[in-house]
Each structure stands twice: as structure tokens, then as C-alpha cells.
Design brief:
It contains six helices and 22 strands. By secondary structure, the protein is mostly beta strands. A hairpin with a 2-residue loop joins strand 16 and strand 17. The chain is globular, with a radius of gyration of 24 Å. It starts with a helix and ends in a 9-residue tail after the last strand. The N terminus is likely disordered.
């Protein structure tokens, strides 16, 4: 009886706390809102263009790489329509709007606004591509919309962004097994079979609101989207590979110091509960970065993934992790260290406005004694990244190059409880290859004027996979519990079934109108002795070119 009363009180207390925090949070927002930002999706073409412009113009990129979309659209409208400030494009407004009402701005299909009060932009999203993969057909059919805007004005208001699409897609043959093994579409959520085997039907929805406080020093963002930490093609800390997730983010800028809190809700790889929903898990991320000079930035990261079951076996967020400044290791110690905790450092060094050298070092678990005496101990779990970018390489305008190397030890990102692995919807939150791999990447981007764009990537990776014959866990699959590990002191790289991955992707795009693309693409993949090739042609409007790089 006493236990039942305690559990009832605990549930009531948690519910009351949630309501109280919500009321306090809303009160804080209403009384201290100053401004808002709306950000590009991290994998979009506009994001890469904004990053490039930010780099060459010596305007610092924030720690999560998200850039202000209003710098190109609503900011110009609100401030002074007669004074056009070039950010990315030389021409923001077009001479001949479509039917007088549409595309008055080159990146806004329809806009309505009243300066200082509200602004709204609506864009259609469409993509259709078709091609062949060996003897099978490949296609993608996407329809949807993009809505962004502001309520209350740029100086004191709330920004919002929404992107939603309905999709039917038939994957290339070489990528279809991933859908079956993950039980989800790569980069996306659940799906249903569409017509023939290998075709999927799924819905995508992303959106968030943004606002600022304390004279724009503290920025808030709440919604459902992807995030990425780092300057590289990949990220070993948090990447955009896994699908979007529920999040609440706080960015605080104090001079040379930048502090980010990211609280998230993920979905683990467990079964349905009562046939109604997937099991939830949560994560909290801290990142503190410091501008050593105007060209060098160093960041310290800590991340923890956890789940909590109450008396009714319902999962809930642990309020201990809402503390925005305390180190998670101290919290974990007080909780008995039940969670999956990781730490990382990253850096970026800009050189002569044309080059950037960057890197990451991630530490999941280690024993200093064993690191020296037993370097192949299974729990020496870490990974590192080193890369470089060249903007306008060899003094050729719009020629950008990237070279990157990634290396992750076996069993990194995994946990004793598979539900607390570093994953979301069975997909890695960091590198798509999971662990027990090394990888080299070369990427070339080139734009000929404003219309023609070329992008080419070459990827070589060596992995160690689990054997289907003996079922042993060699540390590559982060979804498996490390308690089932195959070895104790002989955890060497690529152990298990050694497999090499070779990928080449080339796309040539023509842009007749802003963010309208006609694409020609070819992709070659060789893995574990099997090779496949696919090519496609397509049209996309305000849609991203899907990556096939895993």
C-alpha cells in the first residue's frame, strides 16, 4: 500500500512538474521574446551555399552548423525593400513575377507580409526521378510543401518553419536490403509497401519554432528535425543520417564562448508496446566551444542516451538531465551510471579564407591502464575524424574540394542495454556504418555560373561485420548489446567478416529557376564482392537530392 501510494504520488508529482515547467517556460517566452531565426535543413542545397558564403565572408558558423534563413528572405523584406543586401545571390527579386502574384522573390512562390507584424512564405515541394538499377526500375515521386515565416516581427516575434511531403520510392537494388534490415526507410521512419517489392511509401514531416531572449544572446528552438555537429562530410558526434526527431535546443553566445543544450526524444529498436507505439528513449547533449582566435574554434561535447520506466512501464524523461550546465558524468554517478554516456572534442581552423582543417575525437569508454597495456581491450571505445576543405580551390571560382578520414573502434556507440544504443529508429545517430570501420572520402563540388552544378563523391571504407554463421558480435552493429561481445582483450579493427565498401556518386544539375533542378545522376556501389550501378534523371523543386553514400 505504501509503495502504491508512493508511486501514485510520484506520477502526480512528475505530471505537476511538467505542467509547472511548461507554464514557467511560456511565461518566460511571452515576457522576454526578442527575435527569431529560421534555419536551413542541414542536408539542403541552400544550407551548403549558406555555409560556403559564411565561410568566405568570415562570418562565424554556429556550432551546430545551422544558418539563418531569414538573412536571404524576410530580413531583406522587413528592413528595407529598396536596399538589397547581397548574401548569397546577386538578385533577390525578379523582374517578371509568375502571373503577377507568384515568385515576386526568386525563392518564394508566394509571400504575404506586414512589416513588423508578420511574414509568410509558401513554397511547393516536388520531385520526380526515374532510372535503372541493373535490370530493375528506380524512381522517386515526392509532393508536398514548405511554409516558413514570422509572427510578431523580426525584432520581437516567433519564427516558424515546416516541411512536409508524401513519397513513393523504389530504391536501387544495392540499397534495398537496408530497408529490410532496419525495418525503416534509411534516413526516414516507418513505411508501407508500395506496389512492387522494393518500393516504399512514407510520409516526411519536419517543423519547428524559434525565438530569442536576453537581447538575442540566448536562442531557443523547438520542433521536429535533424541536427548535425561538426564541419565535415560526416559527423562522429551527431549527424543528419538518422531521421528527424523531437528536440528542444538552447544556444547561448557570450563573446568568444558558445554554449549549446540539445534535449531530444528518440525511438529505440524495441518492438511495439501493446501494438500502439514504439518505445521511446531520450538524450541530452551539451557543447561548449571557444573561439581561440577568429580562425580557430575548439568545442567540448558530452552526450548521454537514456530511458526511464515508471511504475506503469511508461517511458519518461529524467528531469536530472534538464540541468543546463552540470556535467553529465556527475549526474550519472549519482544515478548509478545506468546510461550510455559519451564525450567528444572537435575543432576547426580556417586558413586564409580559403581552407578549413577540422577534426573530431569521440570517447565512449576507456580504461587508462588498459589503454596503455592492453590497447585491444574491448572497452577502449573511441573514434576520430580528420578532414580539410578548400573553397575556390586552386583559385578556381566555385570549385570546392573536401578530403576526410574517419576511424571508429569496435563496440563504440553500443551499450549493455541495446535500447540505449546511440541510435534512432534503428539508425546510427553518428556515422551510418556504425562502428568497427575506417573510411576515406573525397568530394568535389563545382558550379559553372549560377545554372550548372556538379557534385561528385568517392568513398572507400573497410568494415568488420558480424558473421551470419556463428552470430557472434564483433562490434560493428551498434544495436547489439556489448555483453554479447566476441572477445575481451583481442578487439582489433575489422575483426569479424572483413568487407570493403567502394562508392562513387556523380550528379550534374541544371537550375533554370532558383531551387528548381533538373538532375542527371549515376551511382556505383561495390560491397563485399557485389557491385551495382544505377542512373537516373529527374526534376526537383525545393527538394533535396537524396544521398546514397552508405
Amino acid at each position: 500500500m505504501i509503495l502504491f501510494a508512493f508511486q501514485t504520488y510520484r506520477a502526480y508529482f512528475c505530471s505537476t512538474m511538467r505542467k509547472a515547467l511548461s507554464i514557467l517556460f511560456l511565461s518566460f517566452c511571452i515576457n522576454t521574446l526578442f527575435a527569431q531565426e529560421v534555419f536551413y535543413p542541414v542536408e539542403s542545397w541552400q544550407y551548403s551555399q549558406a555555409y560556403r558564403n559564411n565561410f568566405t565572408a568570415w562570418r562565424p558558423v554556429k556550432s551546430d552548423g545551422q544558418l539563418n534563413r531569414f538573412a536571404r528572405t524576410l530580413y531583406l523584406i522587413e528592413r528595407d525593400t529598396d536596399r538589397i543586401i547581397e548574401i548569397i545571390d546577386e538578385q533577390q527579386f525578379v523582374d517578371r513575377p509568375l502571373f503577377k502574384y507568384f515568385y515576386k522573390m526568386q525563392d518564394a512562390f508566394y509571400k504575404v507580409q506586414e512589416p513588423g507584424k508578420y511574414a509568410l512564405i509558401v513554397n511547393p515541394v516536388f520531385q520526380f526521378s526515374s532510372g535503372r538499377s541493373d535490370t530493375a526500375m528506380v524512381y522517386r515521386n515526392t509532393r508536398g510543401g514548405e511554409i516558413l515565416g514570422n509572427v510578431g516581427g523580426l525584432e520581437r516575434g516567433i519564427g516558424f518553419y515546416s516541411y512536409f511531403t508524401e513519397n513513393q520510392e523504389q530504391y536501387p537494388i544495392q540499397y534495398r536490403p537496408l530497408t529490410d534490415s532496419l525495418n525503416f526507410v534509411p534516413n526516414e521512419f516507418v513505411y508501407k509497401t508500395f506496389k512492387k517489392k522494393g518500393a516504399v511509401d512514407y510520409f516526411q514531416a519536419r517543423g519547428y519554432v524559434t525565438f530569442s531572449a536576453a537581447n538575442n544572446l540566448v536562442k531557443f528552438q523547438f520542433g521536429h528535425d535533424k541536427h548535425k555537429i561538426g564541419s565535415g562530410y560526416r559527423s562522429l558526434i551527431l549527424s543528419d543520417y538518422a531521421p528527424q526527431f523531437l528536440f528542444f535546443k538552447i544556444n547561448t553566445d557570450l563573446g568568444k564562448f558558445h554554449y549549446q543544450n540539445l534535449f531530444t526524444q528518440f525511438t529505440d529498436n524495441g518492438p511495439f508496446l501493446g501494438g500502439s507505439s514504439f518505445t521511446k528513449k531520450y538524450a541530452a547533449f551539451h557543447r561548449l566551444s571557444f573561439d581561440v582566435t577568429k580562425n580557430i574554434n575548439i568545442g567540448v561535447n558530452e552526450m548521454v542516451v537514456f530511458d526511464r520506466m515508471d511504475s506503469t512501464q511508461a517511458n519518461q524523461f529524467d528531469f536530472n538531465y534538464l540541468n543546463p550546465v552540470i556535467f553529465y558524468r556527475s549526474i550519472e554517478h549519482n544515478l548509478g551510471s545506468p546510461d550510455n554516456s559519451l564525450m567528444a572534442v572537435d575543432f576547426s581552423w580556417k586558413i586564409r579564407s580559403r581552407y578549413v582543417v577540422y577534426g573530431q575525437f569521440l570517447l565512449d569508454e576507456f580504461n587508462l591502464k588498459f589503454l596503455k597495456t592492453e590497447p585491444n581491450w574491448w572497452a577502449n571505445k573511441y573514434g576520430y575524424q580528420l578532414g580539410a576543405r578548400a573553397i575556390n580551390a586552386f583559385k578556381i571560382k566555385n570549385l570546392d574540394l573536401l578530403a576526410e578520414y574517419n576511424h571508429v573502434r569496435p563496440y563504440t556507440y553500443s551499450h549493455r542495454r541495446s535500447t540505449q544504443s546511440y541510435s534512432h529508429f534503428n539508425q546510427a545517430l553518428a556515422h551510418p556504418l556504425g562502428a568497427n570501420f575506417s573510411e576515406a572520402i573525397l568530394e568535389v563540388k563545382y558550379s559553372l555560373g549560377k545554372k550548372w552544378h556538379l557534385q561528385s563523391s568517392l568513398i572507400f571504407a573497410r568494415t568488420g561485420r558480424d558473421s551470419f554463421l556463428n552470430g557472434r558480435n564483433y562490434g560493428g552493429n551498434i544495436l547489439r548489446s556489448y555483453d554479447s561481445r566476441a572477445t575481451e582483450f583481442n578487439s582489433v579493427m575489422y575483426m569479424g567478416k572483413r568487407s570493403d565498401l567502394f562508392l562513387y556518386d556523380l550528379s550534374i544539375s541544371y537550375m533554370p529557376r532558383y531551387n528548381w533542378f533538373i538532375d542527371a545522376r549515376v551511382n556505383y556501389r561495390q560491397f563485399a564482392g557485389n557491385s551495382n550501378l544505377f542512373f537516373s534523371l529527374g526534376l526537383r523543386i525545393n527538394a533535396n537530392l537524396r544521398k546514397f553514400d552508405y
